[in-house]
Amino acid sequence: MKAVILGKSTDTLIPNKNYRPFYGEMSLMDILIEKLINVLPKEDIYLSCEDEKFKNTAEKWGVQFVLRDNVYTLYNISNTEIVANVCKSIPGNGDLLWCSCVEPFFNEFPEILECWRSLDKKEHDSLNIVYPMKKFMLDRHYNPIGFGFGHWHKYSQTIPPIYQISWATAVMSRECIEKINFQVGRNPYWYDSYAPMIDIDTLDDFHFASLAYKALLDDNRQADK
Predict the structure, then answer these.
(1) Cβ distance 189 to 119 under 8 Å?
(2) For the chain, what are the domain ranges?
(3) Cβ pair 70, 82 in contact under 8 A
């Protein structure tokens, strides 16, 4: 198993999103690499970036750096092209842990790797993260989904869950990489995560997530005292 981190330096909404300070002096990239080196050898972790100046981030943590062609960071390039190109840059032919920095609260890497090891690979070619949600949601015609208005109104705990997929990480088999070039295979295993979920897309997301992350870690430190 090798891990590859999508660590491009360009972002139209949040300049330098992956490398700017997020929690103290730690960037989103630092936070993710620190989690990964607790579950995989450093020599099996690869940072894929189009800007060689960020090689120093990989060197700081002792992980590998792969220079990506800038064209594979652009928004007009399909995701399958990006997956194919990035995966080809990672040596070996084993399974791949595909990671990005957009969800700093996700920290279930030991669990998903153990789950992947236990799966029948004839039945599943990828492992993908979903967040079960029980919310009062309406469809595009404003009809309630899984509940009703009136005396038959349900409590949120009894609503059937809907699922939000996470793009923070996925495990891909070699078959999934070679035949599909996408994070979700033909026969995915869906792993339910109950971690706090903030997908950082905008600067407001970044600032809100930074404050929430600090509050969570501070609370955890207080609880450990």
Answers:
(1) yes
(2) 2-130+165-224
(3) no
16: left (phi > 0), else alpha (psi -120 to 50), else beta? left
CATH tag, 2-130+165-224: 3.90.550.10
Query: Can you give the pLDDT of all 225 residues of the chain as single tens digits?
Result: 999 999 988 777 788 899 999 999 999 999 999 999 999 999 999 999 998 999 999 999 999 999 998 887 877 888 888 888 888 899 888 999 999 998 999 999 999 999 999 999 999 999 999 999 988 999 999 998 888 888 778 888 888 899 999 988 999 998 888 889 999 999 999 999 988 888 898 999 999 999 999 998 887 776 776
- Bridge pairing between strands 126-133 and 162-172: antiparallel
Contact present, 106 and 169 (Cβ < 8 Å): yes
Contact 39, 109 (CB under 8 A): yes
